[in-house]
């Protein structure tokens, strides 16, 4: 196989592995979603696929084990075959035996993976495979596979959940009319897409401005399968969240937490607690709630891997100022307000010059009825993820 054909095969197989892995998103966290393809490279080009596996649930078999089991079930011998895995095969005994050992035992001759395991407990698989004589390589051929693991890598490195900011806007970039009215900017298909997103994240965050303006529920509705019941969190330093609002009245559908300051009124705290809402005091920095500390707590104490922010310009702007937005999802409606008094997407103080703007990269865009759904991710390094624009036919789409 030529170098070009080999890379094309790597890209196609890692794309396939990533596609399989996406089926586990929302079900496997705090583990990473992982996919694995086992196949034989054909003499000239292409691959004969023996099995495709993915990690389906926490505590369940890893993708490599799934694919090997499928090989056995099909009487397809993986000896001498290749394995394409979205993440470096693990080398540790966790809830399941090490995947590196399983691949060695099965006689797999080559392992290609997209992302190195950033977790100290999981790393070392590549070295183990190599020392057993397996040909091991990391490949950046598939943007799908690289993007798949980006949230997991981010969580391990920062200790924070992956923060997805989501909003609906008019064509001219407004979140709401000057009256605060924002229901509904987009149509039913865009709204359903947003509910799907709620159905797979660990937490949905909003600000007190949105709670007072919209009285939102923030639950996933109209979705066939709720993969995760998100913790609902309100940034509300003075505890103005109404104890008789829809959030407080729906605590039986899922927990509600309010992030407050230490100085909030005791009576408001009591009223919310009586309504079943949990009030958590966050530390303050320069008179503002420390949102970063709040996010770390969500990851550490609540096992939240992804946090969806559905807020107005106040909280969105503050998160952008703090560079805490990892992914942005805009639903753009074909309507123009052309009113300087209408609400912008973000109110912040991040940059006064274009060169100070935070760079994001485009992941995908999709038509949703009359609206457009667009996904971007924050570009923080010049590393592997920066090269997407050069890739043809490989890249994650917009869907949740
Ligand atoms: N189109 C959409 O997708 C969409 C989605 C949600 C909401 N909305 C609209 O947005 C409007 C509400 O906007 P908004 O900006 O008032 O609401 P918001 O962003 O939900 O909440 C803003 C509030 O959060 C507080 N806050 C944020 N970060 C804080 C921190 N670190 N420490 C302390 N307090 C913090 C702000 O305090 P300060 O005032 O002190 O800054 C402000 O009171 C409504 O009209 C709603 O309909 C639109």
> What is the H level of CATH, i.e. the homologous superfamily of the largest domain?
Dihydrofolate Reductase, subunit A
Number of helical runs? 11
Protein structure class? alpha/beta
**Which fold name is given in CATH as the topology of the largest domain?**
Dihydrofolate Reductase, subunit A
Give the DSSP E fraction (strand runs of 2 or more residues).
15-25%
The number of distinct β-strands equals 18
Instruction: Provide the spatial order of strands within the biggest beta sheet.
Output: 11-10-9-8-14-6-15-18-17
For the CA atoms, what is the radius of gyration?
23 Å
Distance between the termini: 36 Å
Key traits:
five-stranded mixed beta sheet, 400 residues, 2 domains, nine-stranded mixed beta sheet, 24% strand, Cytidine Deaminase, domain 2, single chain, elongated, Dihydrofolate Reductase, subunit A, alpha/beta, binds NADP nicotinamide-adenine-dinucleotide phosphate, 11 helices
Structure description:
The chain is of the alpha/beta class. The protein is built from eleven helices and 18 strands. 28% of the residues lie in helices and 24% in strands. It has a nine-stranded mixed sheet with strand order 11-10-9-8-14-6-15-18-17, sandwiched between helices. Strands 2-1-3-4-5 form a five-stranded mixed sheet. About 3% of the residues have low confidence. The two termini are 36 Å apart. Strand 10, helix 9 and strand 11 form a beta-alpha-beta unit. The protein is elongated. The protein folds into two domains: 154 residues, 3-Layer(aba) Sandwich (Cytidine Deaminase, domain 2); 232 residues, Dihydrofolate Reductase, subunit A, CATH 3.40.430. Helix 1 packs across helix 5 and helix 3 packs parallel to helix 4. Bound molecules: NADP nicotinamide-adenine-dinucleotide phosphate (NAP). The site of NADP nicotinamide-adenine-dinucleotide phosphate has 27 residues, from strand 6, strand 7, strand 8, helix 7 and strand 13.
């Amino acid at each position: 196989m030529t170098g070009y054909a080999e890379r094309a095969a790597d890209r196609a197989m890692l794309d396939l592995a990533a596609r399989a892995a996406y089926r586990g998103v929302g079900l496997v966290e705090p583990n990473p979603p992982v996919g694995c393809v086992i196949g034989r490279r054909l003499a000239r080009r292409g691959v004969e696929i023996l099995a495709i596996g993915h990690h389906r649930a926490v505590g369940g078999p890893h993708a490599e084990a799934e694919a090997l089991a499928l090989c056995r079930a099909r009487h397809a011998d993986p000896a001498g075959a290749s394995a394409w895995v979205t993440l470096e095969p693990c080398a540790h005994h966790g809830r399941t035996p090490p995947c590196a050992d399983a691949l060695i035992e099965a006689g797999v001759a080559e392992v290609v993976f997209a992302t190195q395991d950033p977790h100290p407990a999981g790393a070392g698989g590549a070295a183990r495979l190599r020392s057993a004589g397996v040909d091991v390589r990391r490949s950046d051929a598939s943007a799908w596979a690289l993007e798949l693991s980006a949230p997991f890598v981010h969580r391990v490195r920062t200790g924070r959940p992956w923060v997805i900011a989501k909003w609906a806007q008019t064509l001219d970039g407004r979140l709401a009319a000057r009256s605060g009215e924002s229901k509904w900017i987009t149509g039913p298909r865009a709204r359903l897409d947003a509910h799907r997103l709620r159905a797979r994240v660990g937490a949905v965050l909003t600000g007190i401005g949105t709670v007072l303006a919209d009285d939102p529920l923030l639950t996933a509705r109209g979705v066939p399968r709720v993969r995760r019941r998100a913790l609902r969190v309100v940034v509300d330093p003075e505890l103005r969240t109404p104890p008789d609002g829809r959030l407080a009245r729906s605590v039986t559908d899922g927990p509600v937490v309010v992030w407050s300051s230490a100085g909030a009124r005791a009576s408001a705290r009591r009223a919310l607690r009586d309504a079943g809402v949990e009030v958590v005091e966050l530390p303050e920095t320069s008179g503002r709630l420390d949102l970063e500390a709040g996010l770390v707590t969500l990851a550490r104490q609540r096992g939240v891997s992804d946090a969806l922010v559905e807020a107005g310009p106040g909280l969105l702007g503050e998160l952008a100022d703090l560079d805490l937005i990892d992914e942005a999802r805009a639903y753009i409606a074909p309507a123009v307000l052309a009113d300087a008094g209408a609400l912008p997407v973000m109110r912040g103080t991040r940059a006064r010059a274009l060169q100070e703007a935070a760079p994001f990269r485009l992941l995908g865009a999709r038509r949703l009825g009359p609206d457009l759904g667009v996904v971007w991710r924050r570009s923080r390094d010049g590393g592997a993820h920066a090269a997407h624009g050069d890739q043809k036919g490989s890249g994650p789409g917009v869907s949740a």
